[in-house]
## 1
Amino acid sequence: MAKLAIYAHLTPKPGKEKDVEALLKKGAEMAAGEKQTIAWFGFKESDTSYGIFDTFDDEAGREAHLNGPIAAALMAKADELLSSPPKIFKIEIIAEK
């Protein structure tokens, strides 16, 4: 069972929703190459809200991800695509099915 996770909440600027979706799809492709990332999900919460959820076995894997190319790509586009900076939460997983 993965022990740690990240949840990032993204609010796109009006008219930038499809660009955020494209960025999330690219993130999924990039995550495939991250050996320490157990699972990676990009999702749509509503018409004005998106998110990322990913899981890790340890803090080293989570920190590598937070300092890696996906986070860099997101932050490079944040001002252009998002109405506010991403809200990033570090989560400890306590149960799973």
Note: The helical segments are 17-31, 59-66, 69-81.
## 2
Amino acid sequence: MNVGTSAVLAHSWLLLIHQLPAKPAYLRVKIWRRLQGIGAVAVKNAVHVLPMNEETQEDFEWLLREIEEGGGEAFVCEARLIDGLSDQEIRALFDKARDAEYAQVVKDARALAKSLRPHAKTSALADVRAQVARLRKRLAEIVAIDFFGAIGRETAEEMISALEARLNEDADVRGKDTAASAASPPETLRNRTWVTREGVYIDRIASAWLIRRFIDPEARFKFVSGKGYRPREGELRFDMFEAEFTHEGDKCTFEVLLDRCGLKDAALRAIAEIVHDVDLKDGKFGRTEVAGIRTLVEGIGAATRDDTQRIARGSEVLNDLYEYFRKKRR
């Protein structure tokens, strides 16, 4: 293995090796977009790599499930490089991919800056503001998968910040109350033991908070291996394979719990959109809070490996976030 003067240590990598059926054709496009969204790079045909950590492992596991449900075959393995490609060369592939994406953000930001005229009409400013918000969202998505700190990030950050500063000079913020109304979840979901996979991250932390605060105040949590667990009497599984509550279509577990329990609270819906964007990385809702919440959750994961503590710490964040959305005037 080649080791440069910076004394880069050997890295553990996750490999997703897959084979897709010829039909339906849209499956190939869907999987390709998902791979792009989670930041994976190709090292061989149908072999993609991510740095090894809890979040990337979860990303590959959900993608593996999508491939198998689409009629394909796949498996995920952990690897250390011995010969051929070096760790540094793979890191360079990630940096190259991210720098290309940062460069596109810079290009789009410069074009917006040129189009921004002094004393522009309110409608024109609103259009530019929406485009800048989309750029900021796109930048946050790239940063989330910039595993090794590509050099293009700084320029992209500066360009968008400069645009936002110009727009804020003429900002006219208006809003409205966010209504909150919650339905009562079914009594059959009360006083249960809720089972999920070990190594909880954003969707499981948020779902556990939702369960205990709005669905089952007496909920007890149990953490098990990801596959093969069969529930005992009084247990319900969430965010794991074959669970009673887990991903459905393009919805994360938090969204599924909201829908199935009839929770119509607008503040909870806002949190659901954030959880979705952090967990699935598809930018569906374009929430500006995603980057900050992702950083907080990663900080919780770095601080402790104890799942009960992760849920407790995450619940404090979510309690405050819920109050913010409940009272916020947009």
Note: Residues 1-9, 172-183 have pLDDT under 50 and may be disordered.
